[in-house]
Each structure stands twice: as structure tokens, then as C-alpha cells.
Amino acid sequence: PTVTLPADYVAAHVELAYATTAYRAQGATLDTAHAIVQPGMTRETCYVALTRGRASNIAYVATDQPDAEHHQHPDDLELTARSVLTGVLHHVGAEPSAHETIAAEQRTWTSIAQLAAEYDTIAAAAQHDRWTTFIRRSGLDERQVEAVLASDAFGPLTAALRRAEADHHDLGELLPRLVAERGFDDAGDIAAVLHYRVANATSPSHPGGRRASRLIAGLIPPATGPMPDDLRHALVERAELIEQRAAALAEAAVADQAAWTRDLGDPPTDLRQRRAWMRQVRVVAAYRDSYHIDTDSTLGPVPDASTAQQDDATRAINAARRARHLAGATRSPLVAPARLSSRQSGGPSL
């Protein structure tokens, strides 16, 4: 339809403007640019659109157009200007170079996150019979035992048992006690219930003052007990690679004075103190590499609901505190995750 405006209104309030795509606007320079930002837009395109104006660049964010192509917004998630802009900034449209691709693949396959995942997979196979024996001796009846062994939660349960053993818990006493704690008549998944009980009873934040944990790089519980020689060799190999990776990351960060090391204090001048300090820095470096943290803050954002990450965050926080103590640091620390409670972290929040 045609709209006719009064001449005096046009003279006072209307200016000639042109609309074009961001691709066509590349290289153009204007006094003022108005860009429409919508879901699915790449950050490269957004950059072009918002850098055309000399005096001002204004973005209008469309929140009524879900990104059907990239499925960034589920139906039950409300689209906001912030969520759209966040999605655009994370949507990289440029193709990486061959060098960048190789470097990214090398980082992925040598990262502690990858090595730890491989370690966990091998450990689950190597210790399967051992955990089965513990389950059969826990006080469950035969039907319940078979249900636990067939459950998808059996893997997480055994991982929790491995972590508990690394924390010096006596599994021969712990598991029967947790089984007898309460019945399973109303349990939909006995293995999942047992996993919750084990994790809750053996969390590093749980009071009890146990001895120092036996952990690879300060985070990963080692697999112990009888197992085939080839699986044991594979586990030892990966444990060594994890330790080497943590040491290399920590040493490089300290040498480069990376921003995330600032809150750990300055390296002690005393050789023995420095070695102890570096052991704590390696734990923090291992935590960052395990959870892909690349922020300047020491431990990055507050972890999600994952019990394993919550436990690892607690260990990393404690390592950061010990590093600060060894360094004689006095200024207020900025290490995160700050919203872990004092009960979880074993002291006041950082």
C-alpha cells in the first residue's frame, strides 16, 4: 500500500536513506548506520554491519524470528536481545586456515579433557569385574544386583566409587552402609540412587578431615586393583600424559605471566617453596584444561550441576588457596567460581 505524508512533516522529519545487505555494505562508510541483527547471523557479518557509520552505529535486534537453521533457541526458551547477540557472537562464519585447523585438533586430542575421558573409559573396562564384586557384596539381593549392573547409571556409580577410593574411603565398609541406609522399594533406578548416595557421602566438601587424595594432576582418581596388563599399561601411559600436560601448561602460564595466574601470588624465591607452589598451579591448570576455561579469571565461571565438576572446582579452589598461602599473597583473591558455598569449598567463598 502507498502512504502519503504531509510535505511539512517530510521536510522536518524525513531524511533520504538506503537499505542494503551487510555483504554489499562492505567497504562503504556513512554518517549513521542502522543494522538489523537476527538469529543465524554470523559475527563476521554483524561486525561489518555495525562498523559502517562514522558518527553512530545502531543495532536493532529481531527477537521474533527463531533460528530454524542452527537450532540455537529451543521452543521453550524466550528469545531476548541479549540471547540473540550472544548467539551471533558465537556463530563463526569464517573458515579456519589449515594451520588453525591443525592447531585446534592438536589442542583437542592432547588436552586433559580428552586424556581424562580416555582414562575413564579404559578404567571402566579394567575395573568392571572388581566393581561387580563390590556390588554383589553390598547387601543387595540378586534381583537388585542385576538391575544395578544393567543400569545406564552403573558407569557413573563406578566412577564415583573410584573417586571415593582415591579419597581413602573403605569401599568394603562404605557401600554396605549406604545400601543399608534406606530401602530401594520406591527407587526407579537403584544404581542411580546408589550413585547419589556415594557422591554425597564422599564429596570433598563432606566433613571428616580425610587424608590427602591420591589424584592424577590433583583431579583425576586413579584406577587400582587387579586388571589385565594391557589395560594397566594404557592407564599408566595416559596418567603420565595428563601429568606432563598439566606441568607444561602451568610452566608456560607462569613464564608468560598469564592473567589467570595473578591471583595465585608471585612464585616463591625459595626453591622448595616454589616447587610446592608449582604443584598447586598445576592443579589449577589441569582444571582449566579439563573444562575448556580460557578466561582471565583463575577458575572461570561457576560450574554447572555436574557433581564431578563441582568436586573438581572444590579441589582447584583449595589448590589456588594453597598456592596463595605459599606465595604469601595478601591481596583479595579473585579466583572463581565464587558462588560455591563455604561448605562446598571448605572455607569462605573466593
Strand content: under 5%
The computed structural class is: mainly alpha
What is the tally of beta strands? 2
- What is the chains' assembly state? single chain
Order of helices and strands: HHEHEHHHHHHHHHHHH
Radius of gyration (CA) equals 27 Å
Can you tell me about this structure?
With 350 residues, this protein is mainly α. Helices cover 52% and strands 5% of the residues. The protein has helices spanning 7-13, 22-25, 43-49, 81-90, 98-110, 112-126, 128-136, 142-150, 154-166, 171-181, 190-202, 229-255, 271-290, 307-327, 342-345, and strands at residues 30-37, 53-61. The N and C termini lie far apart (62 Å).
Q: Which helices and strands, and how do they pair?
A:
Blueprint: H1 7-13, H2 22-25, E1 30-37, H3 43-49, E2 53-61, H4 81-90, H5 98-110, H6 112-126, H7 128-136, H8 142-150, H9 154-166, H10 171-181, H11 190-202, H12 229-255, H13 271-290, H14 307-327, H15 342-345
Parallel strand pairs: 1-2
